[in-house]
Write a structure and sequence with these properties.
The chain has helices spanning 4-18, 22-35, 39-61. It is mostly helical.
């Protein structure tokens, strides 16, 4: 299980690497793990996806969380 801080760090890295497609990438990883019965791994990627979503939203609105 990855920490909350690691989730945010990974989210930032995904955005740097994949730009606006980072959210799709994180969700795809979560789906693969969840469908493969890796519930903890899927949940971790869902946390990363939420962090990516928040960061991308804040990037466009200028808000800081």
């Amino acid at each position: 299980m990855i920490s909350e801080q690691e989730s945010w760090r990974l989210a930032k890295m995904l955005i740097e690497e994949h730009g606006e497609k980072a959210l799709r990438h994180a969700r795809k990883n979560a789906e693969k793990l969840l469908f493969g019965d890796d519930i903890q791994g899927g949940a971790a990627w869902m946390r990363v996806a939420r962090a990516v979503d928040m960061l991308l939203e804040n990037q466009w609105t200028g808000r800081v969380h």
